[in-house]
Amino acid sequence: MKLNQVLSIVNQVEKSKFISCLDRMCTDAAKNNKKLAKTIDNIDGQIKNASGSEITQLFNTVRDFFKFTLKDQIMMSSAQLNLLINILSRDGNCVARISWIEALYEKEWQELTTLSKELHTSIKEDVNGSLIERNRALKIYHACMKEAYFNDEKNNRDAKVTDDERSILNVLADELSLSTDESAAIEHLVDIIPKNGVLEALNCLRDMGVLFISRKRQEIFIPDEIVTLLNEIQGKYLADKYVLRILRTLTDAELSNILKAHGRKIRSVSRIDKIYTIIHSGISAVRLLSEDMHHIDDNQNQRKERLKQLINDLEIEVDKLGTTLDERINLIVSSLSTATDKEFDALSASGFKQLLQTLEAHFPSILDLLKEAFELEPNEIIDTEKLRSLSITPIDILYLLSNDEIRDVRDAIGLPKRGNPRFAILESFANATDKLIENYDALARRDINALKEVGADVLEGDIGVKFEEVTKAIFEILELNIDEDLRKSLNTAKDKADIIISLSDNDIIIGEAKTCKNGDFAKYSTTSRQVKAYVTRAENQGKRVAQVLIIAPSFSDDFIESAEMDTEVNISLLEAHGLKLILDAFKSKRNPKFSPKLLTKGGLLKAELIAKNL
To answer: How far apart are CA 355 and CA 426, in angstroms?
Structure first.
């Protein structure tokens, strides 16, 4: 969930800690930054009065300074705080109940304690053979960690690992080929991490500006921008879900190479266990790509060729492949780390829902798999809106299934066997939505026969929902801000708006998508009662409804006249074929810009004129 979205959810009291933190940083950074000083001046120098978009702009401007300050605070904090940050920055944990974070912390603490005991046994043992180098590495790191922690006591100071000492220890762990979980477990041997006190630690992170705490909902929110910062601070080049994609693409031998490089067991270990052992170990993605996955005797050219094949297998689009190993690694890392927005855009909201439903039909356990992989609560209700708020894309879900399972899905829905099966499945659902968009007017008129003729099979009972979803998809293509989180918060069991378009932090358009089988849409009294109830709920939550927009195949003269004469609410009417006309004109332009203000003129909108002036 983006920072701007989080700011729109939490109230003023709940976001005040972040604003105060940002205010301090802006004041310090602006002293030597004219650009930042000017940005602050543009909002009258009062950050506390800034809108969500202005606060986001300020954060982006001061991001590097924010990262520097945050890193300094984290480095000097307790091991408990670092363990908690590791949990919070993982996929799926950016929106969660406090009680669930406490449960995850307890589980992580138990696993770390178990690993610490295992490593302590290895450190004390004298072994021969292939494990001697691994034990030697563990002993060296343990001895250095003890010295870094306890040397302060010699000077009558509290024992702790300083920033400089931790930097050296990080380099040492890397040179000794220790994984992140191993180095954390050894530190746990020296400086035991408390088992309790999670809420106090969360409050500490809130004061740092890392997260928001909603006391009313008993939830924590960590914006995507902050998660990215935390990963960078931890030296984590890629989120676990992207590492999973790489590992799914590697051969069994390459997975074994990675485990062997870190002294892990490979005999009688299944492919899936190899993959999740590597992910949980926290091995650097750059190290994995540059060294660990390759055979020890592979030369530089062989490694470059293997990465070239990996880029093709992951279907990463490149303008320039790169000539060196580092350039190809950077290409993979940068492409994957910035893939989220592009992957959400690849499927409409309707297409995403269809994909999830199809996967559920073939793999009823897919939702349980999602909850396990992304550490979601067992009783959590999973839908595409929830997944979007957690930044879990359709491709992320497809990579949760094994290569064999994904090929079964591809074959079951009758797709060609060439190319990457995951991307073939994704493309098929994108095409399904495209068919409905192309035949939008037939969908609006509930013309089942016309839809069947073009291969867009829709059940009669599903047409209303499909029309709503395809309308949202069209607005998304027009680059309007479809606010599903706000719609969800406004809707009740009785009153359910179809579409919410956010114009700013407080201004919205409420949209209603109506199908009609025979003749013109004429139910004004019923429709007006609906939309007025939505407007009232929105205004009660501090939103200003700039316009109500009703989309239908066509409207009766009485409906148009009643809408124009309504003094209680501003209503615009847009015919389905007119919206499709606007979309076609938008897609035909080189650099199109569609202003949502064009939808706020009132009365029956002149789609031809709007399309002509795009």
So the answer is: 8
Strand partners, 219: 97, 214
In the block, tokens 């592979």 appear at 298
Q: How far are the Cα atoms of 491, 544, 546, 553, 600 from residue 570, in angstroms, in the given order? A: 20, 12, 8, 20, 8
Neighbours of 291 (CB within 10 A): 17
Phi, psi of 310 (to 5 degrees): -65, -40
b/e per residue, 397-428, with b = 16+ CB within 10 A?
A: bbbbbeeebbeebbeeeebeeeebbbebbbeb
- DSSP β-ladder status, 571-575 and 603-604: parallel
- Residue 571 phi, psi (nearest 5): -125, 130
| Summary mean pLDDT of the chain | 88
Rounded distance between C-alpha atoms, residue 143 and residue 166, angstroms: 14
Who contacts 239 (Cβ-Cβ below 8 Å, separation ≥6)?
90, 91, 231, 337
**E strand or H helix at 96:** strand 95-97
Q: How many CB atoms sit inside 10 A of residue 462's CB?
A: 11
Other CB atoms within 10 A of residue 136 CB: 13
User: How far is it, in rounded angstroms, from Cα 271 to Cα 403?
Assistant: 11
pTM over 0.85: no
What gap in Å lies between CA 513 and CA 501, rounded to an integer? 13
Q: With CA atoms as reference, report the closest residue to 478 among 584, 573, 574, 575.
A: 584
What are the DSSP E strand ranges found in 437-536?
499-502, 507-513
Give per-residue pLDDT as tens, 508-519: 999 999 999 888
Per-residue pLDDT of 179-217, as tens digits, reads: 888 888 999 999 899 999 999 999 999 989 999 998 888
- CB contact set of 119 (below 8 Å; sequence gap of 6+): 138, 142, 182, 185, 186, 189
Residue type, position 300, single letter: Q
Helical H segments across 151-218, by residue range:
163-175, 180-190, 198-208
